[in-house]
Every structure is written in C-alpha cells, then in structure tokens.
C-alpha cells in the first residue's frame, strides 16, 4: 500500500496523484505479487480495478506492466469486502458481507500462497481492528500531505511489528515490509 510520510493513503478527497510509481516499482511489485494467489479489496477499490485490469493487457498501447498485471488479475482469486455487492455473476470473485473474522480466517486456512490487500483503506481499517492482518507491505512516498485518509485509525491496542526487508527506489519511494510480531 502506498502511504505518505505522515501516514495517509489518500488525500482528503481520495486523491492519489501524489503517489510515485515507475517501471522499477512496477517490476518489483510484479515479482512480489506472483507469490500471491488471493487479492483482497474493499468495494470501491475492487470496482476501480475491475473496470480496468481485465482488459488492460489487450489494448494496443498496453505497457509491459499492464500486460503482466492484467494476466495476474484475471487468474488471481479476488475477495471483496462489501455489504452492497453480491458474488453472483462475478468471475473468480468471492464477496464477504458479514462475519469478517470467520470468513477471513477460513481463507487463511486454505491451501495457497499470500493474500494481498490492495488499497482499500476502509477495508484495511476493519481488518486491523479485528487483528486479521499478518503483515504490512508499505511504499512510503516522499511527501507530507498534512491531511487525508489515514492508513491507521481507531487502533485500540498496540501492534508490534518486525521489519523483514526494506528497499529504496530511485524515485524516492521506500518499501517497508513488516510482519506482525508474534505471527
């Protein structure tokens, strides 16, 4: 997830025009997400992704990133946290609209690789509050927004983390990869 140095994932109106991405980051993320076979989204992020990625790689001017990510997006199992959409007619997609802890733990217990959460600050807040996040893969952008949508809010108990890796990218973004300590 991309965050500002002061911990925001979007500006006050949801703007993300401050996020830095380049081919170096795309290549790094592309390698990492190949280890994941489940993508978790909130409704808004899912609808945004679904409107673009299924056909992004088929466009005549598709970039290498668009082609690779589109292939991955089509094959990955998608899980959407939403109370307003239903899984009927959704391809390779499961909708969770209640019993968050029970449903997420069922998915975690299934055979497979990593479950990757993309964007979705509201879904992230719910998952954090229920202690359902095992690790944080953050891309800290060199900007201070001062206000916006925070990554962390309404945290009741401290969450201890263990740093696994860091990586500095040429565009100034720093990746921080943590696991929740004790997991």
Structure, described:
The two termini are 20 Å apart. This protein has a domain at 26-133: Dihydrofolate Reductase, subunit A (3-Layer(aba) Sandwich), CATH 3.40.430.10. The model has no long low-confidence stretch (mean pLDDT 91). Strand 9 and strand 10 form a beta hairpin. The protein contains 5 helices and 10 strands; from the N terminus they run ββαβααββαβαββββ. The chain has helices at residues 23-33, 43-56, 64-75, 100-109, 121-129; strands spanning 2-4, 8-10, 36-42, 77-81, 93-96, 114-117, 135-141, 149-150, 161-168, 174-180. With 183 residues, it is an alpha/beta fold.
In short:
With 183 residues, this protein is an alpha/beta fold. Helix content is 31%, strand content 27%.
Secondary structure elements and their pairing?
Layout: E1 2-4, E2 8-10, H1 23-33, E3 36-42, H2 43-56, H3 64-75, E4 77-81, E5 93-96, H4 100-109, E6 114-117, H5 121-129, E7 135-141, E8 149-150, E9 161-168, E10 174-180
Parallel strand pairs: 1-7, 3-4, 3-6, 4-5
Antiparallel strand pairs: 2-8, 7-10, 9-10
Domain Bacterial bifunctional deaminase-reductase C-terminal: 2-173
Pfam family, one: RibD_C
Organism: Pedobacter montanisoli
CATH class of the domain at 26-133: Alpha Beta
Number of strands: 10
Instruction: List low-pLDDT spans.
Output: none
Order of helices and strands: EEHEHHEEHEHEEEE
* Mean of all residue-level pLDDT scores: 91
Gyration radius, rounded: 16 Å
Strand order, largest beta sheet = 1-7-10-9
Task: Report the span from N to C terminus.
Answer: 20 Å
Q: List the total number of helices.
A: 5
Give the second-level CATH assignment, the architecture of the domain at 26-133.
3-Layer(aba) Sandwich
Largest sheet: number of strands, sense, barrel closure = 4 strands, mixed
Per the CATH scheme, the topology name of the domain at 26-133 is Dihydrofolate Reductase, subunit A
Give the helix proportion (percent range). Answer: 25-40%
Shape: globular
Structural class computed from helices and strand pairing:
alpha/beta
User: So, the CATH homologous superfamily of the domain at 26-133?
Assistant: Dihydrofolate Reductase, subunit A
User: How much of the sequence is in beta strands?
Assistant: 25-35%
């Amino acid at each position: 997830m991309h965050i500002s140095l002061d911990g925001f994932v979007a500006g006050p109106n949801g703007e993300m025009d401050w996020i830095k991405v380049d081919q170096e980051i795309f290549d790094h993320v592309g390698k990492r997400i190949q280890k994941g076979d489940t993508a978790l989204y909130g409704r808004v992020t899912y609808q945004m992704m679904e409107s673009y990625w299924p056909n992004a790689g088929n466009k005549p001017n598709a970039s290498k990133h668009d082609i690779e990510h589109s292939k991955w997006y089509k094959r990955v199992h998608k899980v959407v946290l939403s109370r307003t959409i239903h899984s009927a007619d959704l391809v390779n997609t499961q909708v969770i609209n209640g019993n968050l802890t029970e449903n997420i733990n069922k998915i975690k217990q299934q055979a497979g690789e990593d479950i990757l959460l993309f964007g979705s600050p509201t879904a992230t807040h719910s998952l954090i509050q229920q202690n359902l996040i095992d690790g944080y893969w953050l891309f800290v952008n060199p900007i201070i927004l001062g206000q916006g949508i925070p990554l962390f809010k309404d945290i009741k108990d401290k969450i201890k983390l263990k740093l696994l890796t860091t990586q500095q990218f040429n565009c100034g973004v720093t990746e921080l990869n943590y696991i929740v300590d004790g997991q």
